[in-house]
Specification:
The chain is built from eleven helices and three strands. With about 325 residues, it is an all-alpha fold. Strands 2-1-3 form a three-stranded mixed β-sheet.
C-alpha cells in the first residue's frame, strides 16, 4: 500500500467527458463560450461597480467580491477541462491535483460565506433602514469580506492537507473533469476515517449554516416587507433582494446536493453534470441575473458604455 508521501510522485488521469469522443469538439465550443461569457460578464460587473460612484455601496462592494469569486471559480476548472477535451493525455500531477482541489474548495467555501454576508446586508437595509449607513460601515464591510475569504481558504487548507495524506492505491483514474473532494476520495484507500468526519463537518459549517442563516434572514425580510402599507413600497423593497435570492437558490441548491449527501448516494456520472452548474453555468448567470433584475446596474452599464464609445471611435 502506498503512503501519502509516495502518492505525491504519481499522476492522476481525469476522465472528464472522454466517454463522449464524438462530442468533444462541440463540448469544447460550448464550454469555451460559457467561460468567455463568464469572464466578460463578471469583469463588466467589477468595472462598472468601480467606475460608477452611485454603486460605491456595501451591496455592490459585496457583488464585486462575488464576481471576482465567480471568475476564480470558473478559471480553476474550465481551462483544464478545455485542454483535456482535445488532449490525448488527460493527466494531472498529484501536486497539481491538490492545488486545484485547494483553490476550488477555497472559492466555493468563500462564496457560501459571502452570500450569507450579502443576505445580512439586505436584512439590515430592509429591516433596519435607519441604521443602515452606520451598521454597514466601510470598515465593517471590509472585515466581512476578509472573514469570508479567510473562512473559505482556511477550511480548504485543512481539507487539502488531510486529503493529501491519504494513499491512492486503488486507481489513478479520477472519474471527473477536475479534482474535487468526492471523486478524489473515491480512489483513496486505507484509513479514510478522518475525511469521513472532516468533510461532513466542513460541509455543515460552510454550506448548511450559511444557508440556514440566509433562510432566517429572508424570513425576517419577508415579514418586514409585508408590513409595508403600499404595494409599490413592498415591490421596491423586495426587488432589491430578488437577484441575491435567485443566486442563493441556484448556488446552494447545487452545493447542498453535492456536499451534504450520504456517501452511499454519490454517483460520479451524475455529479459530473451537476458540478457543471456551479462551475460554469451559475458563474455565467450571476452577472445576467444582477443586470436584468437591477435597474441601478443597467443604468450604470449605460453610463459606462456611453463613456467608452467616444474613446473607441
Amino acid at each position: 500500500m502506498e503512503s501519502g508521501n509516495q502518492s505525491s510522485g504519481r499522476e492522476f488521469i481525469l476522465l472528464g467527458f472522454s466517454h463522449l469522443p464524438q462530442l468533444k469538439v462541440l463540448l469544447f465550443v460550448i464550454f469555451l463560450i460559457l467561460y468567455a461569457v463568464t469572464l466578460i460578464g463578471n469583469l463588466a460587473i467589477i468595472m462598472i461597480s468601480w467606475l460608477d460612484p452611485c454603486l460605491h455601496t456595501p451591496m455592490y462592494f459585496f457583488l464585486t467580491n462575488l464576481s471576482f469569486l465567480d471568475i476564480c471559480s470558473t478559471t480553476t476548472s474550465m481551462p483544464n477541462l478545455l485542454v483535456n477535451l482535445l488532449a490525448e493525455k488527460r493527466s494531472i500531477s498529484f501536486i497539481g491535483c491538490m492545488v486545484q482541489l485547494h483553490f476550488f474548495i477555497s472559492v466555493g467555501g468563500t462564496e457560501c460565506v459571502l452570500l450569507m454576508v450579502m443576505a445580512y446586508d439586505r436584512y439590515i437595509a430592509i429591516c433596519q433602514p435607519l441604521h443602515y449607513i452606520m451598521a454597514m460601515s466601510k470598515r465593517l464591510c471590509t472585515w466581512l469580506a476578509v472573514i469570508s475569504w479567510l473562512a473559505g481558504f482556511l477550511n480548504s487548507l485543512i481539507q487539502t492537507i488531510i486529503i493529501s495524506q491519504l494513499a491512492f492505491c486503488h486507481s489513478n483514474v479520477i472519474n471527473h473533469y477536475l479534482c474535487d473532494i468526492p471523486p478524489v476520495l473515491e480512489i483513496a484507500c486505507g484509513d479514510a476515517h478522518i475525511t469521513d468526519v472532516s468533510v461532513p463537518i466542513a460541509s455543515f459549517l460552510l454550506v448548511m449554516i450559511p444557508f440556514l442563516i440566509i433562510l432566517v434572514s429572508y424570513i425576517h425580510i419577508g415579514m418586514a416587507v409585508l408590513r409595508i402599507p403600499s404595494a409599490k413600497g413592498r415591490h421596491k423593497a423586495f426587488s432589491t433582494c430578488t437577484s441575491h435570492l435567485t443566486v442563493v437558490l441556484l448556488y446552494f441548491g447545487t452545493a447542498i446536493f453535492m456536499y451534504t449527501r450520504p456517501k452511499a448516494n454519490y454517483s460520479m456520472e451524475r455529479d459530473r453534470v451537476v458540478s457543471l452548474l456551479y462551475c460554469a453555468v451559475v458563474p455565467m448567470l450571476n452577472p445576467v441575473i444582477y443586470t436584468l433584475r437591477n435597474q441601478e446596474v443597467r443604468q450604470a452599464l449605460g453610463k459606462v458604455g456611453s463613456r467608452m464609445v467616444p474613446l473607441m471611435m
